[in-house]
Amino acid sequence: MSEYGAPPPPPPYGAVPPGQPAGGPPPPNYLIWSILTIFCCWPLAIPAIVFAAQVNGKWAQGDVAGAQDSSRKAKQFAMWGTIIGVVGSILYFILVVVLGIAGSTSGS
Prior knowledge:
Elements: H1 31-36, H2 42-60, H3 64-106
């Protein structure tokens, strides 16, 4: 006996609210890894942080595919930023050692 335009009845207790994905945890957002990537390669850390910040918002809106895509992109940017930072640090260390050895032997 509801009138036209009356609000719909509330969902039963324990039901998933409209717009929420049914069951399961959200995909990982990799936010901490993305933030730490700033110390390795900040140009790749910025998009990693942006995509990581989008994951929970998209999940809360019910955009499961968008949340998974943002999670995947955040992981990729953080991974490549870490790899480039580690490889760059190793190459820099090798360069400093080689130049240090070359400088000490040529000065004798």
